[in-house]
Amino acid sequence: MIVAKTIAECRHARSTLGKLAFVPTMGALHAGHESLMHLAKAHAPATATSIFVNPTQFGPNEDFTRYPRPIDADLQICQRQGVDLVFMPEAAEVYRPDLPETVIDFPSLTGVLDGLHRPGHFRGVCQVVAKLFNIVQPNVAIFGQKDFQQLQILSAMVFALDFPIKIVAAPTVREADGLAMSSRNRYLSPADRERGLSISRGLFKAVEAHRTGQKDARTLIAIVTAELVAQSLQIDYVAVVDQRTLQSVNDVGRPSVIAVAARVGSTRLIDNVRLG
Ligand code: AMP
User: Fold this and answer.
1) Residue among 26, 35, 36 whose CB has most ligand 1 atoms within 8 A, to mutate
2) Contact, 153 vs 110, CB < 8 A?
3) How far apart are CA 86 and CA 79, in angstroms?
4) Structure letter (DSSP) for residue 154
5) Distances in Å between the alpha carbon of 124 and those of 12, 137, 154, 262?
6) Does residue 180's CB lie within 6 angstroms of at least one atom of ligand 1?
7) Mean pLDDT, consecutive 10-residue segments, the chain of 276 residues?
8) CB-neighbour burial class of residue 133 (10 A; exposed 0-12, middle 13-18, buried 19+)
């Protein structure tokens, strides 16, 4: 496994690899990330992962400084998964002070859901992923359905800006009790974790209601909201949106997603499931 810490090292290592599947991450790796690495292997003979806590996608009052950075454990996981190249750049090289301000944006997709509640977040995501794509030059990139808005935005970016990269969506990996795996779960106390379970419980109830004929988005939203309110979660949104356009839908006729963002104490959790 090659660990590249500079852009030059990464470019050189990449030039020694053929068809490459890439899994960008912020580290604090868990079984969800591992499933993406595993899927990457099915798409190309060589795989790369980046570990970079990207400052430009965090708001001023968000958890950038306290975001977990267990580097040694992360590298062990990459090794175990047979990753060929790990790119771990320094922020000072990725964001050199002489660079002009860079904005890549898709307002119809970034102005809703998490984009409304985390202004600038997806600009930061697009900026760093575009840079990572140009540095790592993968043929395939894997992203989790757990961050489905990010997945749709990055799919749009590749399409709109003609990156020669195939985007692959990976299903959400959950704990046995349903909680979607997240690097942020390690912030949760046992009591808060229990309260956070209301998110997946509510989503699963909505899926079941939809499966048995409930197509009214407001009713499905109410089912999820009731679970969150019962645990006194602070809700950013519960929404039913078109899977591709991310616009709200009233009747769930076409492929849609029901998505949640809510705070348990100071920890913000997101989750979603497909309807239909
Ligand atoms: P992050 O390190 O949180 O930026 O996530 C890196 C990648 O892992 C993104 O494509 C996420 O969507 C994906 N990911 C995070 N959590 C999960 C999960 N529980 N299941 C599947 N993919 C995930």
Assistant:
1) 36
2) yes
3) 9
4) H
5) 26, 19, 12, 21
6) yes
7) 98 98 98 98 98 97 95 98 98 97 97 97 98 98 98 98 98 98 96 98 98 97 98 98 96 94 96 95
8) buried
* Any ligand 1 atom below 6 A from CB of 170: yes
Q: Counting every residue, how long is the chain?
A: 276
Atom 6, ligand 1: which residue's CA is nearest? 25
At 2, which helix (H) or strand (E)? strand 2-4
pLDDT mean across residues, the chain: 97
- Which single residue is written with the structure tokens 């090794």? 79
Q: Give the model's pLDDT for residue 103.
A: 97
How open is the CA angle 236-103-138, to the nearest 5 degrees?
95
**38: annotated active-site residue:** no
Atom of ligand 1 nearest to the CA of 28: 2
CA 41 – CA 36 distance, rounded (Å): 9
> What is the distance of C-alpha 242 from the center of its chain?
18
- Whole-angstrom CA distances from 174 to 10, 11, 23, 42, 43 are 32, 34, 19, 21, 23
Residue type at 177 in one-letter notation: D
Ligand 1 atom, smallest distance to 144 CA = 12
Which tokens go with 58? Answer: 């965090």
pTM: 0.98
Burial status of residue 19 (CB atoms within 10 A of its CB: 0-12, 13-18, 19 or more): exposed
Beta bridge partner(s), residue 272: 259
